[in-house]
Amino acid sequence: MNREKTLTNLRERILAFATLRISRAQAEDLTQEVLVVLHEKYPNVGDLTELVPLAFQVLRFKMLDAHRKSLRRGEYNQESVDDLPLADPGDDPATQLDQKQRVDRLLAAMAQLGDRCRELFKWKLEGNSFPEIQKLMNQTSINTIYTWDLRCRKQLLSLLGGSWE
User: Fold this and answer.
1) Is residue 76 scored above 90 in pLDDT?
2) Which of 3.30.420, 1.10.15, 1.10.3470, 1.10.10 is the CATH number of 95-159?
């Protein structure tokens, strides 16, 4: 029997043995690696009684090496991504606290403003345009509303300490 036919028969036996212990894809890869080692390092071994034990010894070493490598990489007992809980999409506690403090500062500053400024901000927050606010405040000139808006924003900024943050 020639060497190629011997290696073909041996390949089937190696693959069957490896498939019992590891996944089919890994078993096929390791089988190919074993055959490469036999072909490159042991070209003079041709007798089946010597080749079979040698092939299985190389296979065991390759399987141990693959196992050690997967342990080293952390691939051995990995959890499925589908089983892991999802991260909370909400802000972290520090961001929440910062936001709450800014809102508290804004509310305290708004409470110190006059009635006209509070009404102007309320109507702006409700989505009213400057011409609509002009009618709501019974003013004849829209420029008056623009001036009040500028003054109210400056006053609010100064009450917040000169910064919107």
Assistant:
1) no
2) 1.10.10
